[in-house]
């Protein structure tokens, strides 16, 4: 709740106005309400549809799904790169390296395929900021569902040879 004078009441905007002054409202300072009725607004930038990871072994990996038109659906792997994966991971709050996975690496989805041919530079904060054709337009099957691994760490196979050892060669005799 605020304090001090209440300046506006009965405000009705269509959403196309450039300022509150262009909205239908009572005269400035004319009101019949209390601070318990104070209005607020959140000015978070639009980042597009919510994103989740499904069917991974941890919360850091899985098939990428987006929420559009009231339902969760997958993303096609056509053009799917580590840059796209980095954006998904960033949107989900991860800050490490990201690895793209295709060909339904985390299993096939069952709902609609919402997105295809996504083009991210890798610097976006959310998948909704990336270039893409119209949602719902795709030319793929669930066998091509895209996935990601967030906070990806490449496992290196340790070299068990000791310094100074020479490689062993085998010769086959017939």
TrEMBL record:
The SRCR domain, residue ranges: 1-44, 51-151
Entry-linked InterPro entries: SRCR (IPR001190), SRCR-like_dom_sf (IPR036772)
Gene3D superfamilies in the cross-refs: SRCR-like domain (3.10.250.10)
Disulphide-bonded residues: 13-23, 76-140, 89-150, 120-130
Any one of the GO CC terms: membrane
PANTHER family: SRCR DOMAIN-CONTAINING PROTEIN
Protein name (Swiss-Prot/TrEMBL): NETR protein
Organism: Nothocercus julius
Gene from which this protein is expressed: Prss12_0
